[in-house]
Amino acid sequence: MGYLNSTAHLLAFVAKEEGYFDEEGLDVTLTQFSSASELATGLESSKLDVALIGSVPTLTFQSQGHDLTVFGGAMTNGHGYVIKPEYTEGVDDIDISILKGRNVASVKNSVQDAELQLLLADAGIEIGEGEDKVNIVYFDSQKDAYAALQNETIDAASVYSPYASLAEGAGYEIVYRCSEEELLKNQPCCRQVASTAALTEYPNSYNAFERAIIKAYKFSQENEDDTVSDIKQYIDIDEDYIRTEVYGGYGTSNPDPDKQATTELKDSIVELGYTEDYDIDALYNTSIYENALESIIAENPDDEIYLSLLEHFEQYE
User: Is 138 exposed, middle or buried (CB count within 10 Å of its CB: 0-12, 13-18, 19+)?
Assistant: First the structure.
């Protein structure tokens, strides 16, 4: 399984550390990657069986003909942008307009970049060089974009969890968090992705995987301290930052495929010109999650957390 340097991928960390993968008869090795393209290549070369990939790169990969299917969720919201504090002095109400005339580090083909472009378009702000425009400078990974804040030529940068908390701790100011923007509420980010052929060939293995992830979600809802400790095994930062990102209300880690929200996001980025339109239904598998959740509820018919997942799935499938 491939994942990124994000606290939002906690369901995989918890499933591994708390033994849920073992419980489901799976031998899972977690490997950190730097970018969505590396994860997609890993799936297509059969070096990975599962990857947690951002929704926007997943959608663009699918539109370009990559035979990759979404079968579950991992993260909703959790992104934003930060800016150097000298640009916010004397500013009481910081909004996206503060980026005008600035060089902003971002990651091409990412949720963060698409969200920024959607907000800029909504505010009538053009992209490019000039005092009234926002100049986006692209980097290969979120880690590189964040590190670029050390350069004098970069004024602001995209972030996903835990980089927002790390940035605040380093003295940078939050421009926005997507969870606080009406246009971006309930924005699906990283999805559980696999090759379409593998999902077809090994349905029982992926059902077992999803059961483990669902159990991990329940654990994360009931055991905050242990969940933070599990995450720290993979994202070695201060526990306070982990706690803020995971339990601070800025994002959620939910295993639901959220097909409806992801389809709406696809339509938004197509309208933006970010990618070509395509038939998302052929590359979205909700039955694995549905079957896994139903089997767990059959074993735990009165569990409120599992029942809440079912209610969410029925509402947003």
Answer: middle
Q: Are 218 and 303 in contact (CB under 8 A)?
A: yes
The pTM of the whole model exceeds 0.70: yes
Angle between helices 55-63 and 36-44 (to 10 degrees): 50
- DSSP calls for 36-58: HHHHHHHHHTTS-S-EEE-HHHH
39, 5 Cβ separation under 8 angstroms = no
Q: Cβ neighbours of residue 10 under 8 Å, at least 6 residues apart?
A: 216, 220, 227, 230, 231, 246, 253
* Confidence label for 155 from pLDDT (cuts 50, 70 and 90): very high
CA distance 289 to 292: 5
pLDDT digit string (tens) for 69-102? 999 999 999 999 999 999 999 898 899 999 999 9
Around Cβ 261, how many Cβ atoms within 10 Å? 18
Contacts of 83 (CB under 8 A, 6+ apart): 94, 98, 99, 102, 155, 156, 172, 173, 175
H or E, element range at 23: helix 20-23
> Whole-angstrom Cα distance, residue 266 to residue 282?
14
